[in-house]
Amino acid sequence: MFIYHIADDPDRGEAAARVLRVIEEGEEAATSALAISQVCGYLGWRRREDVIPLFLEFVRSLPTLLKVETGLEDFLEAEEASRLGLSLRMWDDLAIAVQMRRLGIEEVYSNDGDFNPIPWVGRVF
């Protein structure tokens, strides 16, 4: 979501901006340190390191956005979840999904189809 907004993606940028506005207006949502790291990595890869501090400040400024730490237990639980027939090729999505399950979150704002086979995650976007 963040990347589509930051990159002003021609196909998904406007929809991402709408979702972020809803969160700015008070919708409760969550992100993880893993997702934040993915965005920062993308910005570095795109040689947009100058945007990283702005992105981090934006994330920090959203009071209704829960920021979830990502730890070793999340990765171990993701590995365990892979035994349900879910591919470790999508290890980062599995780690996010197990965090969601732990927090009772059932929907993710994402267009990433890797979430589709995860039975406890509904994809919105």
Describe the overall structure.
This protein is mostly helical and 125 residues long. It has six helices and four strands, in the order ααβααβααββ. The relative contact order is 0.14.
Compact description:
50% of the residues lie in helices and 11% in strands. With 125 residues, it is mainly α.
C-alpha geometry: globular
Order of strands, main sheet, comes to 1-2
Task: Report the span from N to C terminus.
Answer: 9 Å
Tell me the structural class.
mainly alpha
Portion of residues within helices: 40-55%
Query: How many individual helices?
Result: 6
Succession of helices and strands: HHEHHEHHEE
> What is the C-alpha radius of gyration, as a whole number of Å?
14 Å
Quaternary status of these chains? single chain
How is the biggest beta sheet arranged? Answer: 2 strands, parallel
Strand content: 5-15%
Number of strands: 4
Task: Quote the average pLDDT.
Answer: 92
Blueprint of the fold:
Elements: H1 2-6, H2 13-24, E1 29-32, H3 33-45, H4 52-61, E2 65-68, H5 72-81, H6 91-103, E3 107-109, E4 122-124
Parallel strand pairs: 1-2, 3-4
Helix pairs in contact: 5-6
Give me some keywords for this one.
single chain; 6 helices
